[in-house]
Amino acid sequence: MRLPVLLLPLLTASLLSLQAANPAAPATPATVPTRPSATPIPEPKLDWYDVTKWGVEGRAWGNLERLRWFDRLPAIADGKVTPAVWGLSRDSAGMMVRFKTDATVIWAHYILRSDRLAGANMTAIGASGLDLYARDSHGTWRWVGVTKPDKKEVRQMIINDLNPGQHEFAFYLPLYNGVESLEIGVGAGAKFEGLAPRDAKPIVFYGTSITHGASASRPGMVHTAILGRHLDRPVINLCFSGNGRMDAAVGELLTKIDAAVYVIDCLPNMGPADVRQKCIPLVKQLRDAHPETPIILVEDRRYANDWIRDSKDKYNTDNHTALRESFETLKKDGISKLFYIPGDNLIGDDAEGSTDGSHPNDLGFARQAAIFEPILRQALGQ
Fold first, then answer.
1. CA 98 – CA 261 distance, rounded (Å)
2. Sign of dihedral through CA atoms 123, 213, 218, 309?
3. Which among 205, 223, 224, 348 is least buried, having the fewest CB atoms inside 10 angstroms?
4. pTM of the full predicted structure?
5. 3-state secondary structure of 107
6. How far is 229 from 135, CA to CA, in rounded Å?
7. How far apart (Å, rounded) are the C-alpha atoms in residues 132 and 106?
8. Could you write out the DSSP letters of every residue in 303-355?
9. CB atoms within 10 A of CB 246
10. For 209-259, how does the pLDDT look when each residue is reduced to its tens digit (9 = 90+)?
C-alpha cells in the first residue's frame, strides 16, 4: 500500500523519536523470513536403468559416432556447421525416452553438461529438468511430474503413490542443457521395460531459439513436444538459439535423415535479404535428396508488442513477404508437397502469448501447436 505523501513526514518523525528513546538499538533494515530448507526425501531401495541401453527418440543419425552420447549432432558435424551451432547442438532439446513399469515410485539420476541451470527467460525446470508424461487408459499422453534441478548432478524422486498397474511413461530431456548420463530408478523388484525408439519416420524441425524451447516452463510444453504427443510420432529438434539461418551445412545433415516431414522455421533469426538468398537453395537441397518428403515453411511469429512498435511490425511483415515470395517461386519451379504456415497469429493476437515479447510462454506454445497441427496432418496424409 502506498502512503499518502503528507503522512511521510509524520512517520519519519515517529521513527526518529523511537530511535532516540532507545539509542542503544541500531537502525536495521527489515528482514524477510527465510523459508526453511526442504527435508531431503529419503531414497528407498531402487533398481536403476541406464537409458542408453535401449535408446532415446529425437536422436538422429544413431549409427554415427558422437562426442557425447546425448549430443544432437554427430561428431562429423564439428567443423562443418558454425561453432555456435555446434555448441548449441550439445543441448538435449527434443530428446525423449520411453519405458513401461508397474512401479509406484519413479526417480531419476542424471548429470548435466553445464552447471548453468537456468537462463534469463528459462526456468531451471525447462532448461535443465526432466519432464515426465504417461499414457492414460485412453492412450492419451498426460503430464505426471518434473525434476527440480538445483545442481549439476540431479538425483531426485519424480513421483510416488502411483496407481497400481503397468503404465507407459516418457521423459522429455532438458531443453537448454546437455546430459552426460541418465538413469531411471524404480522401486526394487518392480517390472521395468525400456522402450526402443519407434520405427515411424520423425517430424524434423530446423529452427531458432523458439523451437529450441525458449521460453517453455518445462520440456514437454514446447510446441514440438506437444505435436509429437498429439500426432503420436517421433520428433527431432534441430533448432539452435540465435542460429537457425537456413545454412547449407545444416541442410546437408538434414538430408541424411529419412523424415516424415521437414519443418523449416528459421525466420526469427533472419532478415528479408537472407530469406530470399537462402530459402530456395535449402528447399531444393532437401528436395533433391528426398523427392517425396513434405516440406513446411513457417513464417516467424509476430512480436507480442508490435502493436505499439511499428519497426517490429515492419520487420515481421517484410520477412513474411520474403518467405511467401520464395514459396511461390518454388511452386513455379515445380517443387511439390510444399506447405506454408502463416505467422501472424502463431502465439495469438492479444499480446499474452510470450515471455519477453519474442519467445512464447506455455500459452504461446499451445497456440502455436494448434496452428501447426492441421498443416502437419495434411502433409502427413492423416
1. 22
2. positive
3. 348
4. 0.90
5. strand
6. 10
7. 10
8. PTTGGG-HHHHHHHHHHHHHHHHHHHHHHHTT--SEEEE--TTTT-SSS-SBS
9. 24
10. 999 999 999 999 999 999 999 999 999 999 999 999 999 999 999 999 999
